[in-house]
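Hey, can you fold this one?
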Amino acid sequence: MSKSEDVNKIVRQWIKHADEDLRLAKHAFKLSSSCPYKLVAFHAQQCAEKYLKSFLALQKVDFPYTHNISLLLEMCSAHAIWVSDLTEAESLTPYAVTARYPGKDIVSKKEAVSAVEIAAKVRKAVRESFKKQGIKLSNTSKRKHTNL
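Sure. Predicted structure:
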């Protein structure tokens, strides 16, 4: 396997995990009783984080193990102009921990909906960037795998 194939495999893995997070976040709204909005926001944050990491992986940029969306956006900005359109994604960073610890777990429905919308925006921006780079990604709604 060439280095390029290795990178493509890693990018596919990041995208698969990111799309699973977003799919789960959206599905949670369909729960018939008390939707866990903190978990919706958590998975939205994870989606955005993983999409940004997939972009960095494709650029062959070493990135730290972090949930800090601001840092990831800053790292992406050296390789993409679209980052300036995603500053609102920085608001997702706290959701990486709110679902994990008691006392910091209050997330409203409005906040959860906003988190999902922001994650979808990050997803779209990264996927459009991949497309402009000539990378074909599958866009099926049930299986969100890439065709790198």
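The CA atoms of residues 48 and 119 lie 5 Å apart. Let me know if you want another pass with a different chain boundary.
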